[in-house]
Amino acid sequence: MQQQRSAAHQGRMSIHQRITLYFAAALSLIIIALAVSNYRISSAIFIDKAVDSTRQSLDLVSGRLDLVFDNAQNDARIAIQNQTIQQTLIAASQDGDSYSDYQRYIAVQNVLGSIADGQTYVSAIVLYDNRHRIYDSGGLDGIRDISRPYFERFAESAYGIAWQGTESSNYYRDNRQVKVVSLFQRFNSQMSGAQLGVLQLSVEERYLSQQYASVKLGDTGRVFIVDAAGNVVSSADPNDLNVSARDEPYYPLLAGEREGRTFVQNGERYLVVSRPYPRMGWSIAGIVPIGEITKDKSALTTRFTLLGFLFVLLAMLATPLLSRSAMRPLKVIKQTVKRVQRGDLDVSLDLYSRDEIGELAVEFNRMVSRTKSLMERSVEEEKRRKEFELAAIQAQINPHFLYNTLESICGLAELGRNADIIDLVGQLAGFYRGVLSKGNPIITLGEELALTQRYLDILKVRYADKLDYAIDVDSAMLECRTLKLLLQPLVENSIYHGLKNKRGKGMIRILGKIRDGKMMIEVRDDGTGMTPEKAKALLLRTGDEQSASFGVKSAHERIKLYFGPEFGLELESEPGTGTAVTITLPLQRPGGNEP
After folding, report:
1. Does 553 lie in the same domain as 454?
2. Which residues pair with 260 in a beta bridge?
């Protein structure tokens, strides 16, 4: 009894009331689902953005470090090639006079000092000759000779450059040692090529950390650098320098190149992003608390939910007006299509709404104008009649198809199925937009399959109990080039001359694979089929454009016109077993020449 009263009450509701009720209920469920989904995935979105931002920051740090180390090597080269230093060290290797040694020291110090003073990043320049006499850039005390390992290394290797990671300086400046990264380079005579000594150019670590001091990772995030041994070689916090990071929970995650990964420390989750710095064998890392990345998530979710329900309320008020106004442009389109069907190509849809119907009107007007233009040009240019005829076929409007589709849209509107109307109009507009595709006759196979799938989805609304389809095409073929509207006439032929007269639901399969360097595409149906003789006759150049075979013949001729006589269609069919159309096309990948 309760169900009967509910059904009776529903029957008394107007169509507009039911549309409003169903639409509001559907929107409410969607908004709730979106709010829940938004809450769950917003963290991932924020983290992904943080990862991307951190990657860019680390790339910037890497570039700045490259600039510092490049400048260091350039300044070392300038010092080595300086003629005063060259001549002084050559003389020092031959003369042991102490007074001369002092004069040489002053001469070399003046040159090294001028180089160091001209570069803010240089902490010190120290030169060790073959007799282990030490020359420096000035202002240094207590210099400790650490050159012996490099004399030995450079004597055994043709490569005369080595970098030493962050360590306490082997000298004092202003009565204190500093953390430095040092370049050691072999010093050879430009005249004889003999080794004269080893040059040390030290860069204060503080200058390296300044290169990323401006990088902001959240409120408390930080950037630091770890060497291959797991020691921190650069950090904004001096207390972290030369401290091993191997026992830190983030250390195993530094091996992932440019990946964002999370770890937990002291009950708090952190994001770590790293990138290798091969030049020094280092890893540049950035760490930021997850809580700082996702702190705006709850507020965003709340605002999203409130806006969603406000939208539901507005939609409930606007739905009755929209459902009535939606019918008016559909009637105009229907009347205009009938005029086109009678051969009047001087029509135009004056619909300027910014929705799917407005898009459909724009695409419709473009196709009518294009069809009219092609027809006029075909009369004026008889020599190119065949090309224009095929182009007109490609761009022609199928009034029956559009008329039937609009009838389906009207039927859905009468049933109050607004969501289905939106989907169907979107499919139809997308189909005609794909048909135009800026006038290009050549598109990718992926685009052609999408166009054909839209066509099949539109027809499934009308022939839901007659039609099903499946597409299985090698993904390597999707970016290859093909003719636009090549598959649609074959599918149309399968539906109207194969499945429509079959009892029960039929199946259309579109299969594609690469064989012997060619694309082989098969359109197969399990419809009523035909005799082999009739199948063969479909490809002959006979018959008029209104015959059932015209779409198949047109596709066959277009393939040969664009790609050559060795390509085209092959038909196989038997009565009662269905029809298979095999398309052979060249394998033309992106960037190839147009046919």
Report:
1. yes
2. 273
pLDDT at 262: 83
Amino acid identity of residue 114, one-letter, is S
* DSSP per-residue letters across 289-334: EHHHHSTTHHHHHHHHHHHHHHHHHHHHHHHHHHHHHHHHHHHHHH
Pair 400, 495 in one domain: no
Positions in the chain short of pLDDT 70: 1-20, 24, 35-36, 38-40, 95-100, 158, 256-259, 296-301, 304, 312, 315-316, 318-327, 377-400, 437-439, 541-550, 591-595
Strands across the sheet containing 506-515:
467-473, 506-515, 518-525, 578-586, 568-574
Residue 65 CA: distances (Å) to CA of 70, 205, 207, 247: 8, 11, 10, 27
Q: Which residues contact 25 (CB under 8 A, 6 or more apart)?
A: none
Distance, in Å, from the CA atom of 497 to the CA atom of 368, rounded to the nearest integer, reads 27
* Angle (nearest 5°) at CA 538 between 478 and 432: 45
Q: How far is CA 364 from CA 348, 434, 560, in A?
A: 8, 12, 29
Tokens of residue 68, six digits: 């510092």
CB count within 10 Å of CB 34 equals 13
* Shared domain check, 217 and 154: yes
C-alpha R_g of the chain? 39
174 shares a domain with 142 = yes
134-168: buried (b, 16+ CB within 10 Å) or exposed (e) per residue?
A: bbbbeebeebeebbeebbeebeeeeebebbbbbbe
Same domain, 222 and 290: yes
CA angle 308, 311, 317 (to 5 degrees): 150
313 domain-assigned: no
Domain total for the chain? 3
**Does 309 fall in a domain?**
no
The candidate with the shortest Cα–Cα distance to 320, out of 12, 13, 18, is 18
Q: Are residues 340 and 286 in the same domain?
A: no
If asked whether residues 507 and 480 sit together in one domain, one would say yes
Decide if 474 is inside a domain: yes
Upper half-sphere CA count for residue 194 (Cβ side, 13 Å): 8
Among 413, 439, 465, the domain-final residue is 439
DSSP state letter for 244: B
| Residue that has been written with the tokens 């005390």 in this structure | 141
What's the CATH number where 498 sits?
Answer: 3.30.565.10
Q: Where are the alpha helices (DSSP H) in 342-444?
A: 356-380, 385-395, 399-414, 418-436
What is the C-alpha to C-alpha distance for residues 265 and 287, in angstroms, rounded to an integer? 12
> Do the Cβ atoms of 432 and 364 come closer than 8 Å?
yes
pLDDT of res. 389: 43
User: What's the CATH number where 58 sits?
Assistant: 3.30.450.20
- The domain boundary, picked from 419, 439, 459, lies at 439
pTM score: 0.47
Closest among 222, 264, 305 to 42, alpha carbons compared: 305
Q: How many CB atoms lie within 10 A of CB 585?
A: 23
Domain of residue 429 covers 323-439
Residue 532 lies in a domain: yes
Predicted pLDDT of residue 64: 93
Task: Give the whole-angstrom CA distance, residue 100 versus residue 179.
Answer: 34
291 is written with which tokens?
Answer: 């809580």
Query: What are the C-alpha distances in Å from 309 to residues 38, 140, 315, 406, 416?
Result: 15, 72, 10, 32, 22
Residues 248, 169 share a domain = yes
